[in-house]
Amino acid sequence: MIGICNTWSELTPCNAHFRELAESVKKGIIAAGGFPLEFPVMSLGETLIKPTAMLYRNLVSMEVEEAIRANPLDGVVLMCGCDKTTPSLVMGACSVDIPAIVISGGAMLTGKYRGRNIGTSDLWRFSEDQRSGVMSEEELNEAEAGMCRSQGTAPLWAPPLPWPAWWRRWGFRCPATRPSLPQIPTARSWRSRPAKGSWTW
């Protein structure tokens, strides 16, 4: 029996596509002769949680540990993405010490504003520009509308994107994150392929 630890939530843009991704993971587990059982854990994202999602990382880690320990699972697939859910799930699974694989949710498409790339970190600068009169409210709304063009983690090299390299360093198997392919963006139609093959690696 293979658990699928899913941090899906519509409140967390990083993980809002995990429901569909989990179906690909299930197919892969069945193809490998396993029996998949999906279970939810608290989803963390900086977008809406106040004052910060960092306050809940240890709570989620404990939830993951106890959910795995309390059930008769032979292995687990951890579905996570950013620097909040990833350490939470990894720490929880390590505490139970059963076979585990990490599936990265992937990065969102880079934002666009008037012909240039923007990211979520630009919002703070735009907000200050609007407050000081450098940018109008209409321009701020336009920039904000083009910032998150898909679901997925923030398209920044730090902090979300280095996590796959760290997982591998710690000995976790990460089928969606080969060295030549650190993160497949969530909007790519072939995003589900590594997820489907997760338990056969």
What does this structure look like?
The protein is α/β, with parallel strands linked by helices and 201 residues long. It has seven helices and six strands; from the N terminus they run βαβαβαβββαααα. The longest helix is centred in the first third of the chain and has 14 residues, at 18-31. 35% of the residues lie in helices and 13% in strands. The relative contact order is 0.18. A hairpin with a 2-residue loop joins strand 5 (111-113) and strand 6 (116-118).
Strand content: 5-15%
Main β sheet profile? 4 strands, parallel
Cα gyration radius (Å):
18 Å
The best one-word shape is elongated
Structural class: alpha/beta
Q: Give the overall average pLDDT.
A: 80
The number of helical elements comes to 7
Sheet with the most strands: spatial strand order:
2-1-3-4
Helices and strands, in order, run as: EHEHEHEEEHHHH
Report how far the terminal alpha carbons are from each other.
17 Å
How many strand elements?
6
